[in-house]
Write a structure and sequence with these properties.
The complex is a heterodimer of chains A (about 180) and B (about 525). Chain A has helices at about 15-40, 50-65, 70-85, 85-95, 100-120, 125-140, 150-175, and one strand spanning about 145. Chain A is mainly α and about 180 residues long. In chain A, α2 runs antiparallel to α3 (about 70-85), α2 (about 50-65) packs across α4 (about 85-95) and α5 (about 100-120) packs antiparallel against α6. Classes of the chains: A mainly alpha (about 180), B mainly alpha (about 525). β1 (about 145) of chain A pairs antiparallel with β3 of chain B, so a sheet runs across the interface.
Chain lengths: ~180, ~525
């Protein structure tokens, strides 16, 4: 009597899947290439894990500096927001999400605060609070996911197809070379 | 509650209670759950996961070489210093032992290369946890104290991990068996000792005992060795054999088995890659739960994936290993080097400065910061833990009349239990809560899902329960560490109450001392 000593694996189902995946990826890659060629807009880094904490730090710095009536520091922080690349990346991401209102509101708050700080005006604190609220709104908007389905599918299918390829090829290699896995 | 008092349990042991224990053991078998059984019994496990992680590692290394310079944005540093190490490996140890090793991409590459090995035997003198412990203390952890952070600088991390892979391939091609994973991988010793804490184990239906088995037989177990082993355990004798509680006997099915596929492999499946025979395995330290033994043994036969009491293996260690003891002490030492830096100031004010001055002249080629961080803080932290533990072992061995070496190796496990409680809360839960958003944002970004998640997934400061963390941790660490000490003392003193108290008290006091240091100094650095 033969005992089935293990659960057998049938990798034949992998073949059509694999062929389909290869065609799919090739097609997807081609589409993406064409899309990239047509793309004329400026590139930006969509991973904002460095930019947002730094901007938050700037805004907190502004509030602290106003509390201490250190207006030079306030202007330095404003310059930092405007000149460093952090706000650029956040602004481009907001533009891609069609949140132009938020950008103009933040920019307005920032320039008003700059004017007030230049004249050492005590109303700066209220303006800084408005700036902080604007930034919180920006953070909330950026917390909502935007899904690039093309990229998502591409990543899943590339990894999936490589695993399928491995599971399909390894038993064959094993038999050919007489080695165990 | 009977398990808490082993002596009473021995007295109550009758034929019927043995049957109940056996039935309980069967109920604890996770293979009774079809979903778990199907997951682990399929031959796609762990191969598909290995393939997945190999692909992911290649992507990480690529990002390390060409990706962003920032450690918080680069995949390789995000993964190796965060996602993998803390939640997946450290956290996973608490629930699934060293299961990470079954799917580890470096292990998979080494395993594949090992199919074409030249057949050299790895020197027996080096077949200990000593070499990987040095790799852990030096290249992995120590380098960063000298300014070479192999886990937080993308390019260095990529070069370092590529070097590890190259060594793994070279060693696997040269030697027979998983030499790299077992005797060279920098994280194998921390994983080996911590896996003893896990609440699951892969064992045979009737678990093994070593009552009549010599160390030599255990190291080189074979089918003929198993046949020489007794069918029934001599419980009283086993209790006297070092730190070991008798847990059963060699499974009759394994004893009568003619092929020993679980160990040697068969036409379809390789044998245990770690060279362990499941029929005689009593610990988790060299079991990656790769299920090769389960795949090669028929489903109705003895292999089980059993639930057990967490930490229970710590007082059932057969032949405690001096390197395991050293690993535990190193882990406690490097857990928070600032902590020990502060502690030395508390007890010996001015000693640190004196040491710094003296050391600087010895190492003129090192900068002041390198001497302070790398030599004073890092080496001193490990040295302090080693020193106070040796002192406790010395007192304990003198009082109980044991050999120092035996006492040193036996009683390190309760310290691991106490430390693990701090590690699991701070390093795993704390890491996920404080930086989870960072990892999630980066991972989703690479998948094409763009959003910003605040690094703090949870505002731990606002949680009332978390503010009590130090007290809860301290109570748990003292209770668990104390109980493990009691059980080990009971085992090694052959139930002699006076000796047991004398052997356990110094270690219990030292655990209390460590917990007090953790509880009073650590919060100041958090």
């Amino acid at each position: 009597m033969t005992i089935n000593r293990h659960i057998s694996i049938d990798t034949s189902a992998c073949k059509p899947l694999l062929i389909f995946l290869i065609f799919f990826i090739t097609g997807l890659g081609f589409i993406q290439e064409v899309a990239a060629d047509n793309e004329t807009s400026e590139k930006w880094d969509r991973l904002l894990i460095e930019e947002i904490p730094l901007l938050k730090e700037n805004i907190e710095g502004i509030i602290n500096a106003i509390d201490k009536s250190n207006y030079t520091m306030v202007r330095e922080q404003i310059d930092d927001i405007e000149s460093a690349g952090n706000w650029f990346n956040v602004r481009k991401e907001l533009e891609s999400r069609n949140q132009v209102d938020l950008i103009s509101s933040f920019n307005d708050s920032l320039s008003r605060l700059d004017q007030l700080a230049t004249t050492n005006n005590s109303a700066s604190i209220e303006q800084a609070q408005i700036l902080s609220k604007d930034f919180n709104k920006i953070e909330q908007v950026l917390g909502q996911p935007v899904i690039d389905f093309q990229r998502l599918l591409l990543v899943i299918f590339i990894i999936g197809s490589l695993i399928a390829l491995g599971l399909h090829a390894i038993p064959k290699v094993r038999k050919r070379l007489n080695i165990k896995f | 509650m009977l398990w808490l008092f082993p002596r009473k349990r021995i007295k109550l042991k009758t034929k019927s209670s043995k049957i109940i224990t056996s039935e309980r053991n069967e109920r604890r078998d996770l293979f009774n759950y079809s979903l778990i059984a199907r997951f682990y019994r399929t031959k796609h496990y762990p191969l598909s996961l290995q393939l997945f992680f190999v692909i992911v590692l290649v992507i990480f290394i690529y990002d390390g070489f060409v990706g962003p310079d920032s450690a918080d944005a680069n995949l390789i540093t995000l993964a190796l210093s965060g996602v993998f190490w803390y939640p997946m490996i450290f956290g996973g140890l608490f629930f699934l032992g060293r299961s990470w090793c079954a799917v580890c991409p470096v292990g998979a590459i080494a395993g594949a290369a090992n199919r074409f090995n030249l057949g050299f035997k790895f020197p027996r003198q080096l077949s200990t946890w000593g070499l990987p412990l040095i790799a852990f203390i030096g290249p992995l952890w120590g380098f960063r104290e000298f300014g070479i952070n192999v886990l937080r600088e993308p390019l260095i991390t990529a070069v370092w991990i590529s070097g590890v892979i190259a060594i793994a391939i070279l060693v696997s091609i040269l030697f027979k068996g998983r030499v790299f994973c077992r005797f060279m991988c920098p994280i194998t010793t921390p994983l080996a000792v911590r896996s003893r804490v896990a609440p699951v184990e892969v064992r045979t239906k009737t678990m093994a005992t070593y009552s009549d088995m010599s160390n030599k037989q255990r190291q080189h177990v074979s089918s003929s060795t198993i046949k020489k082993l007794p069918m029934t355990a001599e419980i009283s004798k086993a209790n006297n054999t070092g730190n070991m509680t008798s847990v059963g006997k060699i499974d009759p099915t394994c004893k009568s088995c003619k092929t020993h596929d679980c160990f040697k492999g068969n036409e379809d499946t390789e044998g245990c890659p770690w060279g362990e025979h499941p029929a005689t395995m009593t610990n988790n330290s060299a079991c990656s739960m790769c299920m090769k033994c389960v795949h090669s043994c028929p489903p109705t036969e003895p292999m089980r994936l059993r639930l057990r009491m967490p930490f229970s293996e710590l007082w059932q260690v057969f032949r405690p290993d001096i390197y395991e003891a050293l690993t535990i002490l190193v882990l406690i030492g490097i857990f928070n080097t600032f902590l020990w830096h502060e502690t030395i100031d508390l007890f010996l004010p001015g000693f640190k400065e004196m040491l710094l001055e003296g050391t600087q002249s010895l190492f003129p080629f090192l900068s002041e910061e390198q001497v302070e961080r790398g030599i004073i803080r890092y080496v001193m932290s490990i040295g302090m833990v080693l020193g106070i533990y040796t002192f406790a072992s010395l007192v304990s061995s003198k009082l109980s009349g044991q050999k120092l070496r035996s006492n040193f190796a036996n009683f390190s496990y309760p310290y691991l239990a106490a430390f693990f409680i701090y590690g699991i809360v701070d390093s795993t839960f704390g890491q996920i809560a404080n930086n989870g958003g960072l990892y999630l944002t980066a991972a989703l970004h690479h998948l094409g899902i763009y959003l910003y998640i605040s690094p703090n997934l949870m505002d731990l400061g606002s949680l009332e329960a978390y503010s009590m963390k130090w007290i809860i941790e301290a109570i748990l660490a003292v209770l668990v560490g104390g109980y493990v000490t009691y059980r080990i003392a009971l085992n090694i003193t052959s139930n002699n109450t006076k000796k047991m108290i004398l052997a356990a008290t110094p270690h219990m006091l030292m655990i209390l001392f460590l917990v007090l240091i953790f509880t009073t100094i650590l919060p100041r650095w958090s």
